Amino acid sequence: MRSKAIEILVIEDNEVDAFLSHNALTCNELSVQLNFVSDGIEALNYLFKIGSFQQALTPDLILLDLKMDGMDGIEFLKVLKDHPTLKSIPVVIVSTSSQPTDIELTQQFNAIAYLTKPLVQQEIVPIIENLHLFSPGGNNRKPLTNR
Question: Which domains, and CATH codes, for the chain?
């Protein structure tokens, strides 16, 4: 297991879903550092260290809601996956949608998993515990889904 906390950026515009995600990610044995933003634009500011995010650390994992006002999850994925260094950050989709078209579209942008809300420990903890498999050089690029 890693000695440093796993940096996780949670991109979620719904406060209740953000709270549930927080609970699922902190009520276990994992050492995580959670950072929350509410939309794709704020997430890009975080990743590019703009404004109040100048001291932000690059996350080890991004949890991404798809359906958000402003820049939605798909638009965010497009920008992320076009960036030479940021494209290697593993992304897990956490969405209310279980539409096959949404799942297929996110797989085209290399999302490592697609989970439907609410986020639960039994689904996210194994992904975090095996995050090394999804990093560059890892041997598991097949996306996971709970649907």
Answer: 6-145 (3.40.50.2300)
